Predict the 3D structure of the following.
Amino acid sequence: MSSANRIGFVLLLTPLVLWLGLLIIIPHIDMFLVSIRERVGRGVYETSAAQYLTFINEPLYIWTFVRTAVMSVLATALTLLIAFPVSYYIAKMARGRLQQVLFMLCLIPFYVSELVRTFGWMILLRETGLVSNLLQWAGLADQPVEMLYNDAAIMIGLVYTSMLFMVVPLVTTLESLDDSVVEAGYDLGGNGLSVLREIVIPHAMPGIVAGCIVVFMLSLGNYLTPTMLGGKDSLWFTEMIYNQFIVRFNWELGAAFGFMLLLLSSLIVWGVLKLTGRTLQETLG
Amino acid sequence: MTPDLDCLDLTRRFGDHTAVDHVNFSVAPGTFFSILGPSGCGKTTIMRMIAGFLEPSSGDIRIRGASVLDTPPNKRPVNMVFQHLALFPMMSIAENIGYGLRRRGMAKAEIARKVDEALERIGLPGIGNRKVTELSGGQKQRVAIARCMVLEPDVLLLDEPLGALDLKLREHMKVELKALQAAFDTTFVYITHDQSEALVMSDQIAVMNNGRFEQVGTGQDLYYRPETPFVAGFIGEANRWRGRVERTEGDELRLRTESGLEMRGAAHGRALQAGDRVEVFVRPESIRIAGDAAALAGFDNVLEGAVSNILFNGAASRALVTDDAGEEIEVTLPQSGEFSDLKRGDRVHVGWSGAQGNAFAVTA
């Protein structure tokens, strides 16, 4: 490498190294150190696994942890189920202008902040909200219906928030599927279901895996949606981390929680990649 | 014998545009049938209608005598080799070839046996476990054909499958496709815009233009006895002049071109009278070139002119000769060596027999 090349290389790499170092690696190392200490007296700390033991021995923590994971997986699956036909329509069936318009329609909600979007759902779903009023007006309910502060409301919010992150990778991979490959599938005797199973889905697999990983991470780490739509009893793990740090000032336990969440998401992503026989490298292109 | 494929009054309109306009043809069993035409002439539309991906606006398609209009593409006894082959990149070669058999619910062992047999037949035994991307262009071609042929279709449709190959391989695949067709003894319907592909491989060729068939016949028919000016101009090369008939003597014509050149031509059975406006086609390879007029005594059209350009192209080299009236004539150079030192500006004589001057009435 010539010296000019080397300078260019270093210059290009610097922002990345700074970003990774200052915002990800150093804070995580620090967090890890915080998570493995225990306060034994005023300003006196000892290294111990006490925080992790607290986590394991408290059923509510474990329950919330598992619940968050299961709900996130469910939200990811639901998002995929809804986004796949939408993406297929945008990528393969819509043509020209319609295609662009539909894609924009998926994008436009994201021009508004997540907070405002979630408020939108609250306006629709709350006791005095639009849906409740509509049901009463239609005679389907004789008193105001509360649709907020339950798991279904959380799920709606999570799926809605994640939709775009599933649609984009899916549209991209489906667009690269040659129409004639699909036609060949029919020509050689396949029906809609077998063409979908043997040709379309295998082709879209990189997009499906990439979309699922992103949506899963976003759901798992989402704080706003579960808190606002699920209420204070929503039992979301990020909420617990927030409580330990901000409400209880128990940074040690909060850090341990944070590390458990990191471990969980890494484990599940690794599992999904193993299951689909892909490497992270392939999936991220 | 019932034809394998019958198209009756087949028509397809897209809005105001008629892509396929009352086309009729039938293909006898075991025939290599080509549809040849420039891009946009409607040949791909015909093929997609036969395969079932497009519905005809009117008319009927019959395979072995039975109409298939109400049969969806996955149930028709026809299979298609796509322009870019459309092999399934997510499957191995064996899975690609076995795809159609799996869809028919055949037993696994039976599929494996048939796939091996097909690979043997296309001369690529033992590549079943490879990926599609590991094959060369010619091998992919053969796999695409095998993938259809294991299903034993009544008719195999091929949509310009050689288009993506380089020249040498294309020449080779022409011979190979013809051999494969003979080996499988199946009716092939082949679509191309490349006349050499059609001429080399086909038993029957339909020349298509603007949604209609201009002429259907063997390669020799189309080359030697074109029935329409489009066919005369499209198949092979031709010098083309516009002019007027001055006199008719039976089938022979006396013509004068717009630039005043006088020549003899032939009507070949078409009704032409003195005064008719005509277009005359003379193939460069049917014109003889000579250094002196005496060598051309047998020809009834003889001209003198100067070589204005030489188009060297190996065996198909030509000379452009400009006669004294300013008319440019393309002449194929014989490769016997006597004209190897011909250069621009040389005086030469050219001659051709009147029967080679194919004249057609100008309708517009």
